[in-house]
């Protein structure tokens, strides 16, 4: 169950897992409260009323109807805010997955989930640890990673976007929202430009979202060349990661970001301001964990001029990608649905 459709990482994760479960012979229905969602083969999608405080009763009534008509054995909500709703729907097993939570709202979200009595799953150690601080225990099921079907080359990127190949290239595909923290990225790029001038990296951001216009204006800090190119959403945005030199994750919070796994699959070093991704970014081995805008800028400067300074551990990355393979992750889902809990 999803509160809303769309193109986010959580929606992509649900679609991937649902499709694999269907291929393994399970009967899978995705109930979604508003927004488009393209069903994988063998998976039914049922539209619920838009999930909002005003529509809450209608949403619950519709969900209960779907659960009754389809005689569901397992009801699994994605997004912690669905926990109180799941509490009202009869089912043999009920779960809710935390795909990341704003630390500013974590206490309230945790209280709501704890009161619901619904079993909580965390997509990664970061969300698990954050919820534990507020008295909510959870099992972990990692996000499943499926590599982009195509990888674009540096020459293709330079040609399509009229980018010079003489400087480092950074690609950041993410929704233009407070969570994804393009504003923090741009602050760091101001410091980088002040130090590196024309040798500063080319940054291409792809996405949609409410902050598009504001961020585009902020990125035009220097009339000669924007700090970052704020570009519209493209379905193939992640395929351009293969053409970049390293990856920057400035997010204020995450669960277990698929874009980092995509970057690691291309052997890109990752520098991040995001505290909750330690299970993917290992300090000094495949990336750097930084704690300020100034530190982020310093790493970007160093990595832009000295490729040897970028940590890279292909063995570690291969192990992480195997742990996050769709087959491995769906094995865990099957165990959860069969037993009701997971072995650590």
Describe the structure.
The protein has 344 residues and is of the alpha/beta class. It has 2 domains: 9-144 and 325-339, Glycogen Phosphorylase B (Rossmann fold); 154-323, Glycogen Phosphorylase B (Rossmann fold), CATH 3.40.50.2000. The protein is 38% helix and 15% strand. The protein is built from 12 helices and 12 strands. The chain has helices at residues 9-23, 56-69, 83-86, 106-116, 125-133, 154-161, 182-196, 212-219, 258-265, 293-305, 314-323, 326-339, and strands at 28-33, 43-48, 74-78, 93-98, 119-122, 139-140, 169-173, 202-207, 229-232, 247-249, 270-272, 287-289. Strands 3-4-5-6 form a 4-stranded parallel β-sheet. Helix 1 (9-23) crosses helix 12 (326-339) and helix 7 (182-196) crosses helix 10 (293-305).
């Amino acid at each position: 169950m999803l509160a809303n459709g769309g193109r986010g990482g959580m929606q992509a994760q649900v679609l991937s897992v649902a499709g694999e479960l269907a291929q393994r012979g399970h009967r899978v229905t995705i109930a979604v409260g508003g927004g488009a969602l393209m069903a994988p083969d063998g998976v039914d999608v049922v539209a619920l009323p838009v999930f909002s405080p005003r529509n809450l009763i209608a949403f619950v009534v519709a969900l209960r109807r779907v659960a009754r008509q389809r005689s569901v054995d397992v009801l699994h909500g994605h997004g912690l805010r669905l926990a109180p709703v799941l509490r009202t729907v009869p089912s043999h097993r009920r779960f809710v997955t935390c795909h990341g939570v704003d630390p500013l709202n974590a206490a309230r979200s945790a209280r709501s989930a704890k009161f619901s009595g619904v079993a909580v799953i965390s997509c990664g150690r970061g969300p698990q640890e954050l919820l534990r601080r507020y008295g909510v225990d959870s099992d972990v099921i990692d996000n499943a990673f499926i590599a982009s079907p195509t990888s674009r080359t540096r020459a293709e990127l330079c040609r399509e976007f009229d980018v010079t190949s003489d400087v480092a290239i950074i690609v950041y595909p993410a929704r233009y929202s407070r969570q994804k923290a393009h504003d923090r990225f741009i602050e760091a790029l101001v410091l980088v430009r002040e130090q590196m001038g024309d040798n500063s990296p080319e940054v291409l951001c792809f996405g949609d979202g409410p902050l598009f216009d504001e961020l585009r204006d902020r990125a035009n800090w220097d009339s000669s060349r924007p700090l970052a190119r704020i570009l519209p959403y493209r379905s193939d945005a992640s395929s351009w990661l293969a053409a970049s030199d390293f990856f920057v994750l400035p997010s204020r919070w995450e669960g277990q970001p698929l874009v980092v796994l995509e970057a690691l699959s291309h052997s890109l070093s990752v520098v991040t301001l995001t505290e909750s991704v330690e299970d993917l970014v290992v300090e000094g081995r495949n990336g750097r964990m930084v704690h300020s805008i100034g530190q982020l800028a310093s790493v970007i400067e160093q990595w832009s001029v000295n490729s040897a300074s970028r940590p890279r551990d292909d063995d570690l990355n291969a192990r992480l990608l195997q742990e996050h393979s769709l087959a491995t992750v769906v094995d865990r889902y099957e165990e959860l649905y069969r037993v009701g809990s997971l072995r650590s």
